[in-house]
């Protein structure tokens, strides 16, 4: 059974049924909306509607309407007291993740793993809810970085990130099909992500390119266990389907070694 | 940078499937809760009995009232998502006492509407199948089992089934009414004096049953935590349901009023207007189609109200007001399975037991609907009064919010009083319920003061939802 169009995740609200035409009044509304977003960032979490309206000189009713709109679209969230606002996870999509330079010790760990296996070894960071390859394997370059960032559901690294979300739909724009193996049904993806959580191992088998697959494990902060990065091995699709346990163990071992170096 | 208020690691309503339901699923719940197709066939004649020539005006007024109630509910649902629905919203404005009263009224409303819907579905099934009391009781049990199964399996599946069923029922009704309307009015004895102007009091008396046709339209509120984009989807679903139901009722009322324009006494003089119109044109197939559509509509209503009823219980249980066990959720289907399996059978019994004892099923159905309406009116009144208070508390009060409540609250009080004085039996049952509730409230107040103060849990923003918090 195919779901109704609304059920396709990532279809952004404005795009349902074609883009609405701009009326003469709307540019001002757009400007005010952006100002409200900016004010929430500037004032910090917990800022109230009254404070925002006062700071921007916007009429209160307009401010409330814009705030409710931004909450409905999940760029903002209401804090539990229902008065204060903070940036929602969706707002992460508005920012580019900061560039991080990898510590030399971490590079050493990656080089060690690259020396052990004949597969591609890549490290990705998940800063701000976005996947970014911070150390691609020079000998086995990964797929296009923008593609990986845009479609986290088709890469093993992206699945690590999605499995950490309360709802993966917040970070998935569009369940695009790349190959015959691409998981494109929301329910199946939910099941795959549950496997990632259960096994602590994400995998993808010919879903982005028919002949390649990858395995990835999380690099977590030693203190609170939050997800900071992902370490991936990419190689021939048929080997991913039935990975060598020793290989997986080496991957896990190197991820553990990276933990104190990256958090 | 200011200090971020402490956030929980997980929502107090965890266990339900958070943020899954699409727009259509949520909308389907509300439309089925209002069961417009059943009301289209049954209500105009009841309204006409009081309002006479002003039947259509009465429906128009009732539609405006429903839209105003939807606006009040929207003030909350744009800002918070609560599986407990109306009572959790009331808690944010009026505090624990009013919230508790609203919770009891919601339980009464949803529970009896569920029972009435089971009653409707099995009564019309009995008419279709032919048969007596035993068939009705058996049908009620079967409907109950299917409803429980659907509710357990999860709202997504239930909503799809319910949407399909209700769409078919509404389409059938609209087609039937359009055919009847195209036929013009029935030939009468010739010059019929125009119906006497019922005056304001007539319109008011007609508004009462017309409002009752809308009950259940806000049922989507209870899916707040489970809707994908709750702050957008839920208020829209509730408002759109009030509007769609209003249009359907006006159309149905117009068709029936026109149909009997040439008949002495008009629509008010009829008992089964749709069937009379149909048989006058020689369309013998209409009754069968109608019975089928109505039983489907009632079935959809039962399924939708079962979901809402279970979530109100679930929410009360999470707070400790109702037994804790009712707050458990199924690990796989992520539905409040204990609340479902313990509440729906009670609703089925509320219909099946009196029928088995010999009370005519139609009488039971009407009594259940009447009482359910009383429960809904109390809950609507409380939530409408709570809306501006809530907005003031969070510092977002605007004049439209005050104006809406200023208009709707006195009207709801009048409607409720008129309703109770018009049906003394309902007043007695409602009074007894209020006494029981008062006892329950007193006990909680003495023994579980903290529990009562914590009433009104909703799907709070948790640490993971805030950007920069988890990282």
* Named CATH topology of chain B: Amino acid/polyamine transporter I
**CATH homologous superfamily name of the largest domain in chain A?**
GAF domain
Proportion of residues in helical segments of chain A = 25-40%
The third-level CATH topology of the largest domain in chain A is Beta-Lactamase
Structural class of chain A: alpha+beta
What's the average pLDDT of chain A?
A: 83
Distance between the termini of chain A: 44 Å
Measured by DSSP, the beta-strand proportion of chain A falls in 15-25%
The secondary-structure element order of chain A is HEHHEEHEEHHHEEEHH
Structural class of chain B: mainly alpha
Molecular shape of chain B: globular
**Mean pLDDT across all amino acids of chain B:** 89
State the distance separating the first and last CA atoms of chain B: 17 Å
Largest interface: A-B, 44 and 39 residues
Fold and architecture overview:
The complex is a heterodimer of chains A (263) and B (471). Chain A is α+β, with helices and mostly antiparallel strands and 263 residues long. Helix content of chain A is 39%, strand content 16%. Chain A has 2 domains: 26-95, Orthogonal Bundle (Arc Repressor Mutant, subunit A), CATH 1.10.10; 104-259, GAF domain (Beta-Lactamase), CATH 3.30.450. Chain A has helices at residues 26-43, 49-56, 60-72, 104-116, 145-150, 156-163, 186-199, 237-241, 245-262, and strands at residues 47-48, 76-78, 84-87, 120-125, 132-135, 202-205, 212-220, 227-236. In chain A, α1 (26-43) crosses α2 (49-56) and α6 (156-163) crosses α7. Chain A is elongated and about 65 Å long. The termini of chain A are far apart. The relative contact order of chain A is 0.11. Chain B is mostly helical. Chain B has one domain (23-186, 196-442): Amino acid/polyamine transporter I, CATH 1.20.1740.10. In chain B, 72% of the residues lie in helices and 0% in strands. Chain B has helices at residues 23-34, 36-51, 55-77, 86-129, 133-153, 155-182, 199-212, 230-259, 273-280, 285-319, 337-356, 361-393, 399-422, 424-447, 449-453. Chain B is globular and about 75 Å long. The A-B interface holds A 1, 3-4, 6-7, 13, 43-50, 60-61, 64, 68, 71-74, 77-84, 86-89, 91-92, 127-129, 165-167, 169, 226 and B 1-5, 7-8, 18-20, 22-24, 78-80, 92, 160, 228-229, 231-232, 393-396, 398, 400, 460-462, 464-471.
């Amino acid at each position: 059974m195919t779901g109704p169009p609304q059920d396709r995740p990532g279809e952004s609200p404005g795009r349902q049924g074609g883009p609405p035409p701009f009326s003469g009044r709307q540019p001002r509304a757009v400007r005010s909306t952006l100002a409200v977003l900016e004010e929430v960032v500037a004032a910090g979490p917990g800022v109230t509607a009254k404070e925002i309206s006062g700071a921007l000189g916007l009429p209160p009713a307009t401010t409330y309407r814009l705030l409710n709109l931004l909450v409905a679209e999940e760029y903002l969230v209401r804090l539990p007291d229902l008065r204060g606002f903070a940036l929602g996870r969706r707002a992460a999509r508005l920012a580019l993740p900061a560039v991080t330079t990898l510590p030399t010790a971490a590079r050493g760990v990656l080089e060690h793993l690259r020396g052990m296996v004949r597969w591609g070894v890549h490290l990705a960071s998940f800063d701000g809810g976005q996947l970014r390859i911070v150390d691609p394997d020079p000998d086995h370059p990964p797929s296009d970085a923008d593609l990986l960032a845009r479609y986290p559901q088709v890469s093993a690294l992206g699945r690590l990130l999605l499995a950490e979300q309360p709802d993966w739909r917040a970070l998935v724009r569009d369940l695009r099909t790349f190959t015959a193996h691409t998981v494109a049904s929301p329910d199946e993806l939910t099941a795959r992500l549950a496997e990632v959580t259960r096994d602590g191992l994400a995998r993808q088998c010919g879903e982005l390119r028919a002949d390649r697959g990858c395995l990835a494990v999380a690099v977590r902060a030693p203190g609170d266990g939050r997800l900071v990065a992902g370490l991936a091995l990419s190689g021939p699709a048929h080997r991913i389907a039935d990975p060598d346990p020793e290989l997986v163990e080496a991957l896990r071992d190197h991820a553990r070694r990276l933990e104190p170096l990256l958090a | 940078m200011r200090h971020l208020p402490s956030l929980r690691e997980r929502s107090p309503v965890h266990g339900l499937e958070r943020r899954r339901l699409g727009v259509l699923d949520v909308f389907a719940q509300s439309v089925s809760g209002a069961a417009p197709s059943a009301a289209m066939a049954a209500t105009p004649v009841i309204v006409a009995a009081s309002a006479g020539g002003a039947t259509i005006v009465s429906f128009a007024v009732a539609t405006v009232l429903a839209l105003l109630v939807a606006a009040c509910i929207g003030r909350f649902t744009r800002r918070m998502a609560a599986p407990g629905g109306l009572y959790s919203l009331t808690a944010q404005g009026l505090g624990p006492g009013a919230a508790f009263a609203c919770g009891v009224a919601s339980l009464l409303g949803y529970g009896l509407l569920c029972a009435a819907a089971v009653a409707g579905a099995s009564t019309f099934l009995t008419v279709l199948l032919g048969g007596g009391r035993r068939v009705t009781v058996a049908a009620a049990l079967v409907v109950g089992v299917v409803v429980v199964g659907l509710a357990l399996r999860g709202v997504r599946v239930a909503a799809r089934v319910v949407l399909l069923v209700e769409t078919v029922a509404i389409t059938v009704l609209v087609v039937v009414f359009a055919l009847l309307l195209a036929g013009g009015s029935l030939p009468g004895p010739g010059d019929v004096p125009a119906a006497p102007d019922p005056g304001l009091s007539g319109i008011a008396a007609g508004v009462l049953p017309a409002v009752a046709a809308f009950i259940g339209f806000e049922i989507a509120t209870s899916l707040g935590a489970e809707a994908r984009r709750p702050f957008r989807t839920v208020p829209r679903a509730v408002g759109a349901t009030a509007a769609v139901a209003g249009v359907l009722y006006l159309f149905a009322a117009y068709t029936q009023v026109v149909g009997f324009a040439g008949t002495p006494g008009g629509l008010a003089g009829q008992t089964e207007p749709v069937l009379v119109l149909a048989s006058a044109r020689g369309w013998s197939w209409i009754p069968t189609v109608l019975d089928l559509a109505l039983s489907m509509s009632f079935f959809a209503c039962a399924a939708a109200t079962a979901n809402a009823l279970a979530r109100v219980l679930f929410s009360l249980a999470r707070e400790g007001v109702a037994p804790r066990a009712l707050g458990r959720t199924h690990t796989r289907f992520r539905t409040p399975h204990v609340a479902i399996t313990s509440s729906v059978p009670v609703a089925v019994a509320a219909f099946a037991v009196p029928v088995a004892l010999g009370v005519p099923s139609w009488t039971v159905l009407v009594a259940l609907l009447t009482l359910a309406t009383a429960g809904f009116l109390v809950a609507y009144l409380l939530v409408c009064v709570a809306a501006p208070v809530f907005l003031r508390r969070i510092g977002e009060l605007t004049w439209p919010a005050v104006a809406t409540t200023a208009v709707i609250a006195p009207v709801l009080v009048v409607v409720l009083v008129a309703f109770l004085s018009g049906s003394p039996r309902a007043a007695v049952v409602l009074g007894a319920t209020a006494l029981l509730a008062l006892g329950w409230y007193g006990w909680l107040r003495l023994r579980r003061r903290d529990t009562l103060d914590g009433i009104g849990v909703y799907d709070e923003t948790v640490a993971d939802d805030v950007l920069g918090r988890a990282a």
